[in-house]
Amino acid sequence: MPSEEDPRTITDQPRGERAVVEGYLRHYRKTFELKLQGLDPTQLAQRSVPPSSMSLLGLLRHLAGVEQSWNVRALQGRHDAPRLASSGTDRDDDFDGAEGTQECVDQAWADWRREVADAEAWLAGDDYDRVVDVRGDEIEVRDVVVHLVEEYARHCGHADLLRECVDGRTGQ
């Protein structure tokens, strides 16, 4: 994609901790979304290398769950919220349940977009200095946001390699 068409182009350099960190998070979310653009359900569900069950669709389902877990469970304190695409006992449910059907793809995108929108709305009114309890550890909201940047950065790397395996496309 030509640089002038890149939706991640930054026109104003963000200033301050919050603007910078949330800018990186938005950038990585958009990068991840671009990695999956233009693929059909079969391509999205294509597995990497055995025995791994990792796929682009699995990553999408995983990141929807990550968004929900950190936003709904950690920041909002709603620990009883049902988990997305997960039995709660198998950490690979996001990947193992990623079927190459339009229904599965539509559900994964709907979940991810809903969770991202909810997280952005919640975070806009939250205080980075607020301390939350995450499984017995007290952490600041800023730590959650930095962890999300970290999570997306790691999975954008995975997505880059997976996309190259699917159709040879690199970049973004």
Automatic annotation (TrEMBL):
Region Disordered, residue ranges: 81-100
One Pfam family here: MST
Stored InterPro entries: DinB/YfiT-like, MST-like
Membrane spanning stretches: none
The protein, known as: DinB family protein
Source organism phylogeny: Bacteria, Bacillati, Actinomycetota, Actinomycetes, Propionibacteriales
